[in-house]
Specification:
- The protein contains 6 helices and 8 strands; from the N terminus they run H-E-H-H-E-E-E-H-E-H-E-E-H-E.
- With 219 residues, it is α+β, with helices and mostly antiparallel strands.
- The longest helix has 16 residues.
- Its EC number is 2.3.1.87.
- Pathway: Aromatic compound metabolism; melatonin biosynthesis; melatonin from serotonin: step 1/2.
């Protein structure tokens, strides 16, 4: 972030070295950044989600109005990975107040809950197979350790994705109570634990990421 003073710009008399347009652009548009999502990102989120899920299961975990709903109520529980201003991967979560997911968890945000329900993790098709999904999920789980009231993260997934989440530390709880059409899901849990010292230090590394001024964490 640059600050422009009140004094008029003074042209330098000596010749400055030429800078390629690509380098100039990076001063105003970082090559890679992670930040919380907002409602202005909703359409980009939904486009990635629709391509990722409709072609596979025929269903979207969140419809566009539901994406806007959660990005309005709890944007701090979302995380987006941007490449030169373009959204390439994201996570959307909300708070839940029970140990297991029910149908209400699909639409409700419980501000006093101690469980984060991860609704969706998706990566743009042209950026898959590059490790972005596991990296973003790791960052998100580390961030959750900064939230004193959060004790666990829950998600539901198809059986084919169980190994993916298992590698990130999730444990299988069993068959999820939620069904969509004729589809069933496995429910998985990630415990948010650790000593207070560890939680404070991790949080210290992320304070600027979630500051009110919406500063950006660069990768």
């Amino acid at each position: 972030m640059s600050v422009v003073g009140s004094q008029p710009f003074i042209k330098l008399m000596h010749r400055t070295p030429s800078i390629s347009p690509g380098i100039q652009r990076r001063h105003t548009l970082p090559a890679s950044e992670v930040r919380p999502l907002n409602t202005q990102d909703a359409i980009s989120v939904f486009e990635i989600e629709r391509e990722a899920f409709i072609s596979v299961s025929g269903e979207c975990p969140l419809h566009l109005d539901e994406v806007r709903h959660f990005l309005t109520l709890c944007p701090e529980l979302s995380m987006g990975w941007f490449e030169e201003g373009r959204l390439v991967a994201f996570i959307i979560g909300s708070l839940w107040d029970k140990d297991r997911l029910t149908e209400d968890a699909l639409i409700l945000h419980k501000p006093r809950g101690s469980t984060v329900h991860i609704h969706i993790l998706a990566v743009h098709r042209t950026f898959r197979q590059q490790g972005k999904g596991p990296i973003l999920l790791w960052r998100y789980l580390q961030y959750l350790r900064c939230l004193p009231s959060v004790r666990r993260a829950l998600l539901m997934c198809e059986d084919v994705l169980v190994p993916f989440y298992h590698k990130s530390g999730f444990k299988v709880l069993g068959l999820c109570a939620i069904t969509v059409a004729n589809m069933t899901f496995t429910e998985m849990c990630y415990p948010i634990s650790g000593h207070a010292y560890m939680r404070r230090n991790i949080c210290g590394c992320w304070l600027f990421y979630w500051s009110p001024s919406n500063l950006i964490l660069h990768l």
